[in-house]
Here is the input.
Amino acid sequence: MKRFTALYAAIDQSTKTTVKITALARYFQEAPEADRLWCVALFSGRRPKRAITTTRLREWAAERAGIPLWLFEESYPIVGDLAETIALVLPPHTQAHGDSLTDWIARLRALDQAGEATRKTAVLDAWDRMPAPERLVFNKLLTGGFRVGVSRKLMTRALAQATGRDEAELAHRLMGDWTPDTTDWHALIEAPDAGADLSRPYPFCLAHGLEDDPDTLGDPRDWLAEWKWDGIRGQLIARGGEHFVWSRGEELMTDRFPELARARDFLPDGTVLDGEIVAWDGAQPMPFNALQKRIGRKTVPKKLLKDAPVILLAYDLLEQAGRDLRNTPFEARRTALEALLNDLPDAATVRPSPLVPVTTWSELGQTRSTARDARAEGLMLKRRASAYHAGRKKGDWWKWKLDPLTIDAVMIYAQQGHGRRANLFTDFTFAVRDGNDLVPFAKAYSGLTDDEFRKITQWVRRNTLQRFGPVRQVRPEHVFEIAFEGIHESPRHKSGVALRFPRMKRWRHDKPVNEANTMDDLRALLAQYG
Amino acid sequence: MVLTFTSSGIYCPAGDFHIDPWRPVDRALITHGHADHARPGHARYLCTQAAAPVMRHRLGEITLDTARYAETRRIGGATVSFHPAGHVPGSAQIRVEVGGEVWVVSGDYKTTPDRLSEPFEPVRCHSFITECTFGLPVFTWPDEVTVANEINGWWAANAAEGRFSLLGAYSLGKAQRVLSLLDPGLGPILTHGAVENTNAVLRAQGIPLPDTVHVTPDLKAADHPGALVLAPPGALGSTWSRRFRPASTGFASGWMRLRGVRRRRAVDRGFVLSDHADWAGLNDAIAQTGAENIYATHGYTDIFARWLTEQGLNAQVVPTEFTGETLDQDGDGA
Here is the structure.
């Protein structure tokens, strides 16, 4: 635990990538194997199941600190992190321990089966054995949020440095549903057969947003274009007579989209497709809203299966007949994809995402402007000769999205952020005018610079009308241009609409409240784009 | 009421004077020289002798009277005296007595001693107007020696690897406190002009500080390898600091107790070093005054007043425009 805490501190105490990688690589070389494996697991989002509710943790921490619970609760949003708040309020430790990261995780997991009294004793005892920095790490394990400024990519790079293995190969090995219980260091990192796990997906190839003019991409003949769909990115894997569906966030979604089992019947063994899962009305994708109802549901009721049936719009073929095609040029992969899918019946629930013809950049720009009619959010541009890269690599794949829709709205509520943004007001509710009323219709958290957040924070503190717990009602005085990707009807919202990806595009210092947009303007957008 | 709260700040009707007012008044008693307490524009000022040089340095030509610590002055119907607050050199709490009733205005204070400021002295009173910048139980300060070791350890490691140590600290008080903790044997100490100006004022009044080199435009960073560079926080990310490369950056403040704040500052290292009382310090100080009435100002006033009320005190929030929340302001405090 001490070694892992030292690693955590080294990572936390530097803003420089090289320093973080060096510290991680050293850990991978020096720590015991079990700890190393857990370190890889934690930094790739695999954490032990939460054995204790945060409600109990708060109560126990307040009790141990000798403060009333309300005072703990008031402190938490100011610190911005629960694990840290607990570590900070507790009195100094009085005992010692010599246990490893793996020991503590094992102890934590054993608590899952224990009664509440045992859990409490165990947690209080742990807190009393650790100095504050270790406590913070321990609490992070307890609360399950292990985000510490180390991306998975950075961890993988350090692992490559420590083991002398290829980074992309390691990225592939770390995919899938392994845990430290189901594997060991040798099998995960060193064993020769990387494909041993039937369900293992490939690292997703990610695109950058195109900000410059497409002319900068050179000869249009070097490129292929597709619609950029607004669905859920996923890999469909057909291997060993089974099938698996993975999200980009590496969540196994096979059971959430039972329709895709039918695709399995039409795909030969050893096939891996990359594509977009969309709700399908028989001819084209339904608005994201339809799919949204299915997100987060482990099992899908019959009605939803009927109202929002999904298919996979496949745009890449990563594996064919068990052979990894990722280094084959995209153009050839695309040809193979079409050969595989073009003649499948509708019942297959998988179809190729059509190519959009590329002639000149300006004509392609015209096509892009019709994306909303095609139920797409823009175009994807992919270099014909490109490999399927692991992760986000600039140059070969670009998202060329439509300009967002916008509306000018009045800020009416504000709330403080968390983590890096604790103590800044960053979460706002916006309203449009409706006669003399202001009707809330969207929340937004991003889009302003740190400096703007600081300014608005100062203002919120001096212009609070009323507090509702952490939420402050503020004087309706500031107008912001809100950008969003889509709009649809929503009976759950007071305004009757819900926006897709709302964010603050600009602080309209130049606009008084009486020039902000109205409910009628919002309804007009709904009629046009909903 | 011995003291009342007006739109200009804390006011004593019996003596017709204000304490740390934020609008121009006739007579202002000032707890210490930080900009949010000592403002320009008053007709007459009164502060401690030790605070006077900084006041003059910052406010220029002012009509300034000074008092020794504990010396009593009669102003109208009030008796006033200044008592050490342990915040920065010369800082004071101000005691006001009218007809046997005693009020104390804490100004900013720190209950643990450092190597420069006159140590905090509790003053018995009926009513205590206390700051509570760090009035939450998450704020507990490590002892000064621990922090000194952290800073010197960081500096030594940077010097060994050929890096400058770029440390942000407020120019009045915090910077000099950092200087008092540094081990000058580790290398040269360079200072930004704002820090060096205050150094000069404090040195002139006999406060011992280690030797420093003022960073002038023609100074060559390469002539001072392994230096620690002390600058106000605002200079840290500016073009001014660019000549010191490669560098590790640090910031010394009580706010560094919170990771979120440290990350937002985007510095490599945060050193928890505050000129204010921590949670335990605030509670101890209040207990030692024996006061029944507590007025909370500057900080987490609502929360702190509620806590004190639950402890059986008669606690209220001072109604001011400046009820704290100084976090992230690049002023003097913290």
Residues 144-160 of chain B form the longest helix (17 residues). Helices of chain B lie at 52-59, 144-160, 174-181, 193-204, 259-265, 279-289, 301-310. Chain B has two domains: 4-138+275-317, 144-271.
